[in-house]
Structures
1.
Amino acid sequence: MRKITAICLTAVLFCLLMTACGEEAEPREKAKNRLTPTGAEQVSATPKPTGEPAPSATPEPTGEPAPSATPTEPTVPTTTATPTEAPTATPTVSAEPTPVPVKPEVREFSCDSPNKALLAYTEKLNAIIDEAQKADSKIEFRFGLCFVNSDITPELWIEYPSDHVELYAYDGTQPVLLISFSEESGRCGYLEQGNLVSRAYPYEGGYRTDYYVMVELTMSPFLTMEEKPAGDGNTRYYHEGREILKEEYDYIRMQIVTPSSIDATGSHDSWFVEATGYEYSNSEVYPDLFEEYRTVCGQRGWEPFPNGIPEEILKLVTGVWQLTGGTVEGWEWSAEEEGDEATWTFDENGNGTYLETAPHEEAPEQYHFTYTPRGKFYEVPWCLEVLVDAEREFYFYIWVDNNGRLVQNHFCAPEKFSSLRFFEQ
C-alpha cells in the first residue's frame, strides 16, 4: 500500500515539474521573437561572421555595381549600323533637279534721281565723243539704258565693236563702273530689276555662262553654268563645276535668269554712234537718253515725273526771281540802269507767273511749262518751254545757267527774233 502511494506521489510531482517548465519556455520564446528582425530588417541585416565562408548565392550589397553587372544600354552590333549618307554610284549627276539659290540675297542700293543720272551719263558719253573729236579720229560705240537693280534710276551700258561692254550705275554724284567684259567675245544680258548680270562666251570647246549679282554698287560672282562636248558625241552639262543632267541644267537656267540682251543691234532703245569730227553733237546725247527713259517707263506703266518735270528741276526753279538785265542782238543792258522791273514766280507744279511793273505796269501772265531736253538750241541740256503767241509762234524758253541765274529766252523763229533776260532769286 505504501509502495503504491509512493508511486502516485512521484507521478503527481513529475506532472507539476513538466507544467512549470512549459510556462517558463513560453516567455523565452516570446523574448526570442522580439529580438528576431522583421522581413525588411532581415534583408539589410549584416550576418554575424561565423568563421566560415559566406554563401556565394547572396553576396553582401556594397552600393556599387558588381563587376559582372549587365550594362544599362544594350550594345548594338557595329555590323548592323545604318550609314548617315547612302552612297550612290554617280553622285554628281542627279535624276531630279537640285534646288539652287535662284534669288540671291542682295543689299540694295537705291538712288531715286533718274534725271540726275541721265545728266551724269550724258557727261560720260560726251567725254568719249570729245576725246575722239580732239584726236580727229573715228570712234564707234552703242549705248543704252537698263534696269539692273530695283530702283527707278536706270543703269547705263556702253558697247564697243570689239565686244567690250561696260555697265555703269549712278551713285548719286557720278557714274560708277559696275563691271566690264572685254576678255572674250560673247553675249551679255541682265535680269530686269533682278540684280543679276550674265555673260555667255565660248569656253574649252563648249560654252560657259557666268552670272554676277549686284550687291549695292559692286558686281560679285554668283554661279557658273557650262556646256562641254564629250568624246562620245554628246554634250555634258555642269553647274559650279559639278556634272548634272540636261534637265537639271535647263531647270536651273530658267530659274536663275531669262536675260534681256545687252546687244544694240536692231534695238529701239540704243543708239549707234559714229563720231568723226562733229558728226554727232554732244547736245544730242541727253535728249536721246531722256526720251528713251520716258519710253521705257511708259511701257512699264511708270510715271517718274508726275508733273512732267524732273523733281530736281522743279526744286531748282521754284521761287521768286527778280530781273537783273539782259541782252538784245549782242547788246547787254542793266535792269537797274534802264529802270525795268519784272519777276518770274514758279510753283512746285511747273506753273510760272510773269509780272512786269516798270517802266509799264502789266497784268500778271500765267503759264504752264513743259520740260524739254533740247539743249542743242541753247548750249544747255534742258529748258522749260511754253508757247506765248501761237499766231506769231513766240516761245518762252527758261533754264538755269551755271552761274545760278534764271535765263528767259523770248524766241520767234519766223521773225528771227531772240532776246535774253536774266533773273536772280
2.
Amino acid sequence: MKKLILSLAICLMAAFSANAQDWRLGGRVGAGFQLQAEYGLSGDSYLEGRFGMSFLNGLDADFTALHMWNVATMNWTPSAGEWFFDAGTGLGVGGRAHFAYVGVAGSAKLGIEFSGAPVRLSLDWTPVIGPGIGYGGGHSGAVFNAMGLANIAVSAVYCF
C-alpha cells in the first residue's frame, strides 16, 4: 500500500511539473526529518508532500500527503513579513521492519513569509490518527498509534 501511495504522489507531482510556477521546496525538522515540497493550486490552497524519517515510533520511514488551505494572513510585523495560518488534511503512512502505521493526517501551521526573501518559516502540528501495526513471526497486532499525535516540527521552504 505504501508503494501505491508513493507512486500516486509522484505521478501527481509529475503531472503538475509542466506547470511549475508555484513550487516551494524545503525541509521539516522536529519529530523527524522530512524533505518537503509544496505546490500552489488556484486560490488559497496548495498540495504538500513530505518524505523522510520519523523519530516518534523509533526510526521509521515516513510519507505524508496533505491538501492545505490558507485560513488567515496577519500583518503583525509589516517590515519583517506577512504571518499566515494554514490548515489541511491528508494521509500519513510509515514504518520499518515489523511495524507500519497509516492514518488520517490533519495539519495546523503558523508561520511567516519574509518580505525581501523568498522563504517561509513555520511551526506545524500534523497529528496522524490511525493504527500502528506490528507484524512478524507469523503473528500480527494493531493498536492506536498514540505517538502519531506528537508530530510537531519547524519547517522552512524556499519559494520559487
3.
Amino acid sequence: MKKNIFNEDVYLQRDIDSLDTFYERHFYHKQMRYEQGILYNDEINEYNNFLHILKELMESLGFNTSLENIIAISYLIKNGYLSYEKSFDIKSPTDDLEIKYGMSIICGMGCCRNFSSFGNDILNLLGYYSKIFYCYTPTFILSRFSYSEEANHVINLIEHDGVKYGIDMYNGDTLYGFKNKLILSSISSYYFKSIRYKPYYEIVTGESTFDDIDFQLEIFNNESKKNKISSFVYEDEIRAHTLEVMSRHIDLFEDFHSKTKDIKKDLALSLKRKNEKKNL
C-alpha cells in the first residue's frame, strides 16, 4: 500500500519524502512572504495602525475572555464595521497576502484564512492566547480515509478558563473541543462535526518545527482529558450574552466605522492599485 505523506502517522515519523515536500513548500512560501513584506511594507504598517485603533474599541466593550472577544470580532467582521465600504462578502479573495491574510477583511471579503488571521492578530494584540490552527474538515463525516488528506481549513485555537478550544469564526463561531491530540469535536446542540489537526502546515509556513509539533501534541493530548463547557453554556450563555452586548452598541460601531473609514479606504485602495500593477 502506497504511503501518503500527509498522514500524521507517516510524516510525524520524519518520513524523508514528507520532509522533502514540506521543506520545498516552506522555502517557496518564505520567499513569497519576504517579497510581499518589501512590496507592501506601507500597507502592513497601516494595517497594524488600524489594529491598534480597533484594540481600543475592543477594550471599551468590557469583555474579559478571549472567547467573548473573538465572538465580538466575528460580529464586527460579518456586519461590515471593519471594512471600508461597510459591507462584507464571505468568499475567497484572489489577491490576499500570505504575509498578512487579515488585511483582506479591511477590503470587505474573506474566507477562513482571512478570518483566522485577523482574529489571531487582534487577540494577540489584546494579550490573549491565540494560535492559527490548520485542519482538515470533511464534507460529511471524518473517517479514517480522510486522515491522509491535506489541510483544507483554518480556525483559531484559544483558551477559556484554562482549557484550549478551537473556534471557527468563518462557520458561525462553531466551538470545538479536543477529543484526542489530533481530533476536535464540535460543542454544539445542532452542529455535529469533527475536524483533524494538520500540523504539517506549520512546517510549510515556518511557524513550528517538528520538535515544536511533538511538544504541542503532548499538550493537546492533555487538553483532551479536561472537562469542557457544555453546548448550552457556550451557545445560550456565553455567545448569546456577547451578541446581546454587541447589539446594544450599534451606535458605537457606526461611529467607529465612520472615524476609521479613511484609513480603511486608503489601505484597501492602495492594496488594489499594487495588486493590479503587480498582475500586469
